[in-house]
């Protein structure tokens, strides 16, 4: 792929197997914006422009995104090493990068099974990179949208990977803030929660402006106005509502950098001091 600083678009999209007709390079997509902020190479000019506009509003955006990603890694390690979870349904996974859910889980539990879900065709283009997990386990992915949970839950590939009679970790990391209130995000999450048995976990992270009094909601969300999904930051109470009826794992819903920080993990200084995201984990009683 091309270097992210080159200003050129990824040539891999010209591959005959790529779903080119469903990829619009002129409309920014959250997965590709996120990839750019992580230092990846799978994005278009429109994605880079949106990301740079976000950085102007919040100079600590890049560091915050990396802190967000580090939280996901710590939470998955906890699920595999301490909670005894061997099945993971990762929705809104984004473009493959380092420390994916299956990589972390299968390092701890080789037999772990991971089903990835994303609605961006470019993620599927690079999906083969996700299929190189431990042969003792199983890893697969589908193209689907969180807004249609019934399609995810009944998909043959997902059903082949995930046994819904046993505990599952449902991962919604950095995806719910792209679901508007009109799209009924709480109802969507409740459908997923209802589909898994007791002992299952919900891993969730969400963008917030609770730590950014100096930035207006309109200013912060503007870079996403022309994207395939608008940005909807939510407060602590609004984010906490997604866990309703489940028991939060200590330390509860907190800023991602303070959720079980690893002393051995490099703690990057974030300009402004905050990652602007909450993270939490809960178990179904």
From TrEMBL:
It comes from the Bacteria. The keyword Cytoplasm does not apply. The keyword Metal-binding does not apply. SUPFAM superfamilies: S-adenosyl-L-methionine-dependent methyltransferases. Residues 1-24 are annotated as: Disordered. GO terms for molecular function: methyltransferase activity. GO terms for biological process: methylation. It holds the Pfam family Methyltransf_19. Keywords: Methyltransferase, Transferase. This is SAM-dependent methyltransferase.
């Amino acid at each position: 792929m091309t270097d992210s600083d080159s200003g050129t678009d990824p040539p891999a999209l010209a591959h005959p197997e790529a779903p080119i007709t469903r990829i619009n390079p002129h409309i920014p997509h959250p997965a590709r914006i996120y990839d750019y902020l992580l230092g990846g190479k799978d994005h278009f000019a429109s994605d880079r422009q949106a990301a740079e506009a976000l950085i102007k509003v919040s100079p600590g955006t890049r560091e915050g995104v990396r802190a967000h990603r580090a939280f996901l890694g710590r939470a998955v390690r906890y699920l595999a090493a301490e909670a005894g979870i061997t099945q993971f349904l990762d929705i809104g996974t984004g473009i493959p990068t380092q420390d994916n859910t299956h990589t972390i889980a299968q390092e701890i539990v080789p037999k772990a099974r991971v089903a990835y879900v994303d609605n961006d065709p470019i993620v599927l283009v690079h999906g083969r990179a996700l299929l190189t997990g431990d042969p003792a386990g199983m890893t697969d992915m589908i193209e689907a949208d969180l807004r249609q949970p019934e399609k995810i839950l009944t998909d043959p590939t997902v059903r082949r990977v995930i046994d819904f009679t046993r505990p599952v970790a449902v991962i919604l990391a950095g995806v719910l803030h792209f679901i508007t209130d009109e799209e009924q995000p709480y109802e969507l999450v409740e459908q997923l929660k209802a589909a898994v048995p007791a002992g299952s976990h919900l891993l969730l992270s969400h963008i917030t402006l609770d730590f950014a009094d100096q930035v207006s909601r309109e200013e912060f969300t503007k870079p996403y106005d022309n994207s395939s999904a608008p940005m909807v930051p939510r407060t602590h109470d609004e984010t906490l509502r997604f866990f309703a009826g489940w028991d939060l794992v200590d330390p509860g819903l907190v800023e991602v950098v303070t959720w079980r920080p690893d002393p051995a993990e490099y703690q990057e200084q974030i300009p402004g001091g905050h990652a602007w995201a909450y993270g939490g984990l809960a178990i179904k009683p």
